[in-house]
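stage 2 :: seqdesign
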């Protein structure tokens, strides 16, 4: 009998994939802090997690490619700046760093849940 890890780990595997996607988007925002006209993006975690659950395993390969798909609810959203810059860049480094830090903490929490699930599976396999 084989183990289906997607079923064994439940939504935590999907959550980890969404957190990884969000990390890439937030890192892109931080990297483009000084790029004129760059529009800061973020992901709606709840909508992306629902999309992952409906689609099955696997993350979003190209976040920017989803911008071209009209009508998709779980696509990157443009962040509205608190104080817009004169060059059209909407990246606010403090906001992005806080979001990145929170996402990293949430990523670690999800990893902790997955680690607990895997330890439980290991104990079941070993008959403990």
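stage 2 :: out
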């Amino acid at each position: 009998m084989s183990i289906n890890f997607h079923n064994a780990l439940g939504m935590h595997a999907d959550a980890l994939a969404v957190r990884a996607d969000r990390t890439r988007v937030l890192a892109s925002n931080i990297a483009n802090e000084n790029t004129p006209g760059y529009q800061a993006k973020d992901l709606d975690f709840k909508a992306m997690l629902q999309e992952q659950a409906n689609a099955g395993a696997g993350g979003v390969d190209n976040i920017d490619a989803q911008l071209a798909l009209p009508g998709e609810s779980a696509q990157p959203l443009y962040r509205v700046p608190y104080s817009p810059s004169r060059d059209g860049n909407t990246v606010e480094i403090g906001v992005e760093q806080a979001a990145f830090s929170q996402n990293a903490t949430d990523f670690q929490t999800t990893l902790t849940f997955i680690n607990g699930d895997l330890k439980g599976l290991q104990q079941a396999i070993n008959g403990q």
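stage 3 :: structure notes
- The CA atoms of residues 37 and 118 lie 45 Å apart.
- The chain is about 60% helix and 5% strand.
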